[in-house]
Amino acid sequence: MSNEEKKVNLENEELQDDLKEADAPGDTGADVPEEDGQKTETPEEEAEKSPAQKEEDEALNTKYLRLMADFQNYKRRAEKEKGDIYAYANEKLVTQLLEVIDNFERALMHPGADESFVEGMRMIFKQLTGVLEKAGLEEINALGEDFDPNFHNAVMMEDNADYESGKVTEVMQKGYLLNKKVIRPSMVKVNN
């Protein structure tokens, strides 16, 4: 039984307990109108019901409890979907900007003749990555880590005495997470 089913069963039991407490002996016995305009039944009226009426009442009660549980599940699902929309609304834009970041990094690897120009480019790159990090982007650490197919895409294997078997020896393209979701796995070489 999944956690979601356990929650629904627990809520159903709580609703049934609440209904039983409301119908418990010790009530005043007076007919008090409920919120929806119906009268509550006294214990004497409850005892006078035929078995068929009791079964029908129980079936209606069960149907009501299931309807309430379905509504609670719907509300939870809608809230989760709404949260996911906000969390991943920028995913397409961020994915496209990853190519820009890759090109920035390649350009910064090659030394330029004008050091002030290179320093300015580094500052712009730092500002761009800072904005993306605030939006939930984070780099996947890969070099020297155990190969994990959930985060890494192995494109080559090699024999490297500096690393243990199954370790990432080189990152060919950085991978990224957006709000803890992999939007691009790291392209890596893995040691045999």
Which secondary structure elements does this structure contain, and how are they paired or packed?
Blueprint: H1 3-22, H2 43-48, H3 51-88, H4 91-109, H5 115-134, E1 137-139, E2 152-158, E3 168-173, E4 176-178, E5 181-184, E6 186-191
Helix pairs in contact: 1-3, 4-5
Describe the structure.
The chain has 192 residues and is an alpha+beta fold. It folds into two domains: 3-22 and 39-88, no CATH class; 91-191, Nucleotide Exchange Factor Grpe, Chain A, domain 2. Helices cover 54% and strands 15% of the residues. It contains five helices and six strands, in the order H-H-H-H-H-E-E-E-E-E-E. It has helices spanning 3-22, 43-48, 51-88, 91-109, 115-134, and strands spanning 137-139, 152-158, 168-173, 176-178, 181-184, 186-191. The strands form two sheets. It has a three-stranded antiparallel beta sheet with strand order 1-4-5. A three-stranded mixed beta sheet has the order 2-6-3, with no helix packed on it. Strand 4 (176-178) and strand 5 (181-184) form a beta hairpin. Helix 1 (3-22) crosses helix 3 (51-88) and helix 4 (91-109) packs antiparallel against helix 5 (115-134). The longest helix has 38 residues, at 51-88. The chain is elongated, with a radius of gyration of 31 Å.
